[in-house]
Amino acid sequence: EQGLQLLELGGSVEEDYIRIARCFEATRQRCCRLEQDGRRAREQLARVEAERAALEVKLKHARNQVEVEMKKRHRAEAELEKQERKLQLVLELLMREPWGNEALSREQCSVLSSLAGRHLGAALAPIRRSSTVDESCQSLLSPSDISYDRTEDDV
């Protein structure tokens, strides 16, 4: 457009050609700058995509590790409940048997009575819960926020 406007203004042909050449040079320089900007943007995109891929791998490993740890925790809690039931049965057996009261000292009987009165599970609950992770807290690292959707792993 500028070239056409220059031609319409009149003047010498040589001056018009010089003005047109300057316009073409300015356009060429602008194209070169845009090409360099595009190259830098593509390089930055490649770096960011590589970083994203690395982070996705780390996320996948973290998800797998959380899943493994949760399975271990559930197995440990199931085992603990199983042992608590066994202990409760032994306690009930000791408290019911007449020979059990004779074989046990007075102090042992009072401890067993207090445990039986409070229910064994409630007596051991503070011990068990002090070592577990509080999952009710809403944080970025909360296991409840982690999605186990395997469809993203295929990407």
What structural keywords apply?
5 helices, mainly alpha, 79% helix, rod-shaped, 0% strand, 155 residues
Describe this structure in words.
The protein is built from five helices and no strands. By secondary structure, the chain is an all-alpha fold. It starts with a helix and ends in a 25-residue tail after the last helix. It comes from Thryothorus ludovicianus (Carolina wren). GO terms for molecular function: GTPase activator activity. Residues 38-97 form a coiled coil.
What does the secondary structure layout of this molecule look like, with pairings?
Blueprint: H1 2-9, H2 13-96, H3 98-103, H4 106-118, H5 120-130
Helix pairs in contact: 1-2, 2-4, 4-5
Write a short abstract of this structure.
One of its GO terms (molecular function) is GTPase activator activity. This protein is mostly helical and 155 residues long.
Mean of residue pLDDT? 77
Distance between the termini: 48 Å
Q: Portion of residues in helices?
A: over 70%
Characterize the overall form: rod-shaped
